[in-house]
Amino acid sequence: MTPSPPDPSRLGNEALVELGFSPLEARVYVELLTGAPRTGYQIAHAIDKPVANTYKAIKSLEIRGAVMVTAGTKRVCRAVPYDKLLGRLDREFRSRRDRAVEALSTLPAPAADEGVYDLRTADQVSERFRLMLEQAEDQVVVDAFPQVLTLFTDDIERCAARGIQVTLKVYEPIDVAGVDLILAHPRPNLMERWPGQWLNIVVDSSQHMLAFLTRDCQGVLRAIWTDSRHLTAIYYCGIRAETTLDRVGAVLQRKGTHAEIKAAFDTFGQVDFSGTPGRRELLASYSPDPDPTHEKGQDEQ
Fold first, then answer.
1. Quick check: 227 and 266 in contact, CB under 8 A?
2. CA-wise closest residue to 146 among 179, 86, 194
3. Suppose 119 and one of 54, 70, 124, 181 were both cysteines; which one would form an S-S bond, judging by CB atoms 3.0 to 4.6 Å apart?
4. How far apart are CA 42 and CA 54, in angstroms?
């Protein structure tokens, strides 16, 4: 049996409710949009709603700029074309958003904590990933499966173009400009063994995210984010060690020389982990005043 096509009026009502209209306001507007101008009484009769409630909805729509009402005793309502209405609503939203950004940007940044937070949707994961790239000051390491990586290559390249040291571990050959690209040591059927797409990132040893998305990257199997300096330092060391082993594995696979193997091992020590913002903050939290006599000595001189 062929399913019946969706009702355009119902879809229009649902779309307007998602934009913040009440169900009755949406019903009245769609009714006017699809018919001739009418009085409130005629509209109430057409949609089978109480007259008083319908008049209230019309008044609200008039204030919103969604309908126009004639002057005089017999007040006739006419819908504003939907493209004009939505265009104005979009401009108003952007104006309110800009004012909110300006106001909220003056607030102090939240302090780091030891919490590990769940991310429930793919949009949350995407937004967090891009925000972390924007916040990077020194170093970024990304470990991503092929399909999800294609969604973020432009963002990663922009991060690297700012002078951030970006290390990118991949599982298939790919071109990403300006990054230290590491191809994972090949393992048979690796993609098939995992029922989804990994997207992992650590930034400045100050925050990291581990996200496991569905194969189509539209859902989340599990995703967590934390700016715990302690936990992030441990993960940072782990992912750096893992990428070093991938470098060594690549040299061994092509039967490189002893000097080449040593050079691959040495890449681990060449990363200045101690200089990352997260590392400095972590050490400061453990020892706020490493030399309590230093200040006193300065005063006595």
1. no
2. 194
3. 124
4. 10
Q: In this structure, which amino acid lies at residue 57?
A: A
pTM (2 decimals)?
0.67
The whole-number average pLDDT for the span 23-42 is 92
Mapping DSSP onto H, E and C, the string for the chain reads CCCCCCCHHHHHHHHHHHCCCCHHHHHHHHHHHCCCCEEHHHHHHHHCCCHHHHHHHHHHHHHHCCEEECCCCCCEEEECCHHHHHHHHHHHHHHHHHHHHHHHCCCCCCCCCCCCEECCCHHHHHHHHHHHHHHCCCEEEEEECHHHHCCCHHHHHHHHHCCCEEEEEECCCCCCCCCEEEECCCCCCHHHHCCCEEEEEEECCCEEEEEEECCCCCCEEEEEEECCHHHHHHHHHHHHHHHHHHHHHHHHHCCCCHHHHHHHHHHHHHCCHHHCHHHHHHHHHHCCCCCHHHHHHHHHC
Would you say 242 and 170 are in contact if contact means Cβ atoms under 8 Å apart? no
Q: Hey, what domains does the chain have and what are their CATH numbers? A: 9-84 (1.10.10.10), 117-278 (3.30.870.10)
Q: What are phi and psi of 271, to 5 degrees?
A: -80, 125
Quick: pLDDT tens for 90-130.
Answer: 999 999 999 999 998 888 877 777 899 999 999 999 999 99
Q: How many CB atoms lie within 10 A of CB 196?
A: 20
Do you know the residue count of the chain?
301
Q: Which amino acid is at 46?
A: A
In Å, how far are 163, 217, 228, 250, 275 from 206, measured between CA atoms?
18, 26, 7, 29, 12
> Among all chains, which residue has been given the structure tokens 């101690």?
274
Q: Can you name the residues that pair with 212 across neighbouring β-strands? A: 198, 222
